[in-house]
Amino acid sequence: MTQRSLFDHEPDPWELDALGDTLVASVVLPEEPFGPFDYRVPDRLRGQVAAGHRVRVPLGKANRLVVGYCVRLGPPGGHAGRLKDVHSAVDPEPLAGPAILRLTEWMADYYLCRWGQVLEAVIPAGVRAQAGTRQLTYLDVPTEVAARLSRLELPPKQLHALRTLLGSPQPLTPPELAERAQCTQAPISQLRRKGLIRATVRRTMDGRAEPPAERLPHLQLNDQQQAALDSILAALRSGQHSTLLLHGITGSGKTEVYIQAIDQVVRDGRQAIVLVPEISLTPQTRQRFRSRFDHVAVLHSMLTGPERHWHWQRIAQGEVQVVVGARSAVFAPVPRLGLIVLDEEHDASFKQDKLPRYHARDVALQRARLESIPLLLGSATPSLESWHQAGQGEYRLLSLPQRVENRPLPDVAALDLRTEYRSRASRGAVSRPLHRAIEQALRDDGQVILLLNRRGFSTSIQCPACGHVVNCPDCDIALTHHAEGDKAVCHYCDYQTRVPERCPECRFDGIRFSGLGTQKLEREIQRRFPQVPSLRVDSDTMRRPGSHEEALARFRRGEIKILLGTQMIAKGLDFPNVTLVGVVNADTALHLPDFRASERTFQLVTQVAGRTGRGEKGGRVLVQTFSPEHPAIQAALRHDYLRFAAQELPVRQRHGYPPVSAMIRIIARGPRERAVEQFAELMGQRLRDALASAAPDHRLLGPAPAPVAKLRRRYRFHMLLIGPRIAALQQAVRSVSGQLPTDDEIQWVADVDPLDMQ
Ligand code: ADP
Ligand code: ZN
Question: How far apart are CA 189 and CA 179, in angstroms?
Answer without folding.
Answer: 14
